Amino acid sequence: MSRKYEGLIALTTKNQEGSMDALVSAVSKDIEASGAKIEKIDNMGRKEFAYTPRKINGAHYVNYIFTGSPDCIAKIQEKLALNVSVYLNKFNRVA
């Protein structure tokens, strides 16, 4: 059974080379490799943090809307945990 999900991912480029577009496409490939099908990618831009955790001033927020099986979220989170550019990820089921 395929369900629709929304994933908000905060990406940081601290100590990273390359553009933000390359980073967004790398994360989308990780999502698709986990068995999901991406419907829409919404780049929300850079937002500054209210305080500086881990010496990071802000991050680029990207909203991914995709469909997949219920177990694909755990697979996606496992892959994103290995990516040093992913600062934060949050997934919700879209009704």
Secondary-structure blueprint:
Blueprint: E1 3-11, H1 20-33, E2 37-48, E3 58-68, H2 72-81, E4 86-93
Antiparallel strand pairs: 1-3, 1-4, 2-3
CATH-derived architecture: 2-Layer Sandwich
Main sheet properties: 4 strands, antiparallel
Overall number of strands? 4
CATH class, named Alpha Beta
The number of domains is 1
Q: Which structural class should the secondary elements be placed in?
A: alpha+beta
Q: What is the averaged pLDDT score?
A: 92
Strand order, largest beta sheet = 2-3-1-4
- The shape, in one word, is globular
Tags for this entry?
single chain; 95 residues; alpha+beta; Alpha-Beta Plaits; 4-stranded antiparallel sheet; 2 helices; 42% strand
Overview of this protein structure:
- This protein has a single domain, classed as 2-Layer Sandwich (Alpha-Beta Plaits), CATH 3.30.70.60.
- The chain contains two helices and four strands; from the N terminus they run βαββαβ.
- The chain has helices spanning 20-33, 72-81; strands at residues 3-11, 37-48, 58-68, 86-93.
- Strands 2-3-1-4 form a four-stranded antiparallel β-sheet, covered by helices on one side.
- α1 (20-33) crosses α2 (72-81).
- The two termini are 14 Å apart.
- The mean pLDDT is 92.
